[in-house]
């Protein structure tokens, strides 16, 4: 199928109404992009922030008379709201197999000495290495972001054999599964999103993790347990606010890895944890930080 898209430059307070209108005239999908190079580093808990200037991209079937419909939509919007309709343009979308093109360019990535993240459809570059097969299409966490890469390198360099691990905010399960492949004996994955639980389970199965050695829970259902290693790659705000919940999973003398932290936020996180942990390292990559620590005995 061929596609055509309408691209609108809007203010944040217009997005909801315009998204509804675009869907009403047949948009198959509407996405939002930063319209003014305005970064949003971290939302407050329970909020969904948006840029001040937003680019709305609405995708339609190319057979649809979009130019005429957009003109009618603009007239209706102006009449009903007494506001000017946002500027927009209409473009044909190149007819490609986008999934195939993306799959062809996604290459295996090495983290440390032993660990590789390998797309499930590619042969490992080093069959003798620890190869984590991952299908990034289902959920978040492929190793490409600095926050995940920092954690994977820590795992590669840590003696994790026979240790138990909690992956707090497991997402795709990439950190917990990497720990298992590197020698951990048991992994508990915890997340607030049911999709994360599904993704983690499928990725664990894809990597041959024995179902008896992995437990996955939504946060409200998570059991009380303590382990030797806790991994939490979320965001600085939740890391601070959920400090007690995170530390509750960690045995005295256990190792803690915190990530998803901007360099400017590192001290805040360190301050929150240093009363109960020895801070072992604060490592930075591309403006993001990993804090490693050991809980007081």
Q: Helical amount among residues, as a percent range?
A: 25-40%
Q: How many H/I helical runs?
A: 9
- Low-confidence stretches are 45-49
| The first-level CATH class name of the largest domain | Alpha Beta
Number of strands: 14
Distance between the termini: 62 Å
CATH architecture of the largest domain: 3-Layer(aba) Sandwich
Mean pLDDT equals 86
Main sheet: strand order: 10-9-8-11-12-14-13
The domain count comes to: 2
Determine Rg (CA atoms, Å).
23 Å
Written account of the structure:
With 297 residues, this protein is an alpha/beta fold. The chain has two domains: 3-95, Alpha-Beta Plaits; 143-295, Rossmann fold (3-Layer(aba) Sandwich), CATH 3.40.50.150. The protein has helices at 15-24, 66-81, 98-105, 146-157, 174-181, 194-206, 236-241, 243-247, 266-273, and strands at 3-11, 29-34, 53-61, 88-93, 109-111, 115-119, 130-134, 164-168, 186-191, 214-218, 227-233, 250-262, 277-285, 288-295. It has a seven-stranded mixed beta sheet, with helices on both faces. It has a four-stranded antiparallel beta sheet with strand order 2-3-1-4, covered by helices on one side. The protein has a three-stranded mixed beta sheet with strand order 5-6-7. Strand 9 (186-191), helix 6 and strand 10 (214-218) form a beta-alpha-beta unit. The longest helix has 16 residues, at 66-81. Mean pLDDT is 86; it is low at 45-49.
Outline:
This protein is an alpha/beta fold and 297 residues long. It is built from nine helices and 14 strands. The protein folds into two domains: 3-95, Alpha-Beta Plaits, CATH 3.30.70; 143-295, Vaccinia Virus protein VP39 (Rossmann fold, 3-Layer(aba) Sandwich).
